[in-house]
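Renewal narrative, Specific Aim 1. Our central claim is that a sequence can be written position by position from structural information alone. The example that follows is taken directly from our test logs and has not been curated for this report. It begins with the structure tokens describing the chain, in the order in which they were read.
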């Protein structure tokens, strides 16, 4: 079953977030600037918890999600989908992580396998995601996300 292309974001974050909620080490953000690692962790948790206020803070106003449908989503559209009732990630595994950082930008991504519920319907996906981060006014925000399914 194909799910809304926003769902990758929650899936990609859930494994890291679940570890954080269990009091375990959060993701592999070693080697990243401390403020970027903190922002990435907060973003993971915001997606896992469907935390509207944190998503508002961590996504840039000009955020774009380029998903599998060929249609771009805005920040408002992404957040509306992310906090929709009946959506819950129950399993996530992230592999093949990619991390590229420069003074005011970064790319964080990888492969994700996930299962859960999207508007009450069960799903299982495998895909590749990339988040592009920008440091603006001293604060890291996601400005662009690309996701595509992998068979």
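The sequence written for that structure reads:
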């Amino acid at each position: 079953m194909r799910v809304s292309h926003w769902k990758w974001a929650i899936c990609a974050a859930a494994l890291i977030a679940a570890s954080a909620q269990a009091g375990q080490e959060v993701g592999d953000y070693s080697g990243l600037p401390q403020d970027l690692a903190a922002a990435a962790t907060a973003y993971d948790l915001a997606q896992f918890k469907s935390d509207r206020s944190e998503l508002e803070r961590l996504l840039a106003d000009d955020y774009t999600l380029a998903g599998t449908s060929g249609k771009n989503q805005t920040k408002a559209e992404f957040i509306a989908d992310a906090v929709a009732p009946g959506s819950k990630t129950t399993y996530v595994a992230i592999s093949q992580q990619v991390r590229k950082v420069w003074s005011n930008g970064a790319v964080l991504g990888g492969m994700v396998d996930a299962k859960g519920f999207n508007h009450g319907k069960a799903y299982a996906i495998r895909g590749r995601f990339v988040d592009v981060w920008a440091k603006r006014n001293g604060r890291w925000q996601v400005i662009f996300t690309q996701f595509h399914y992998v068979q």
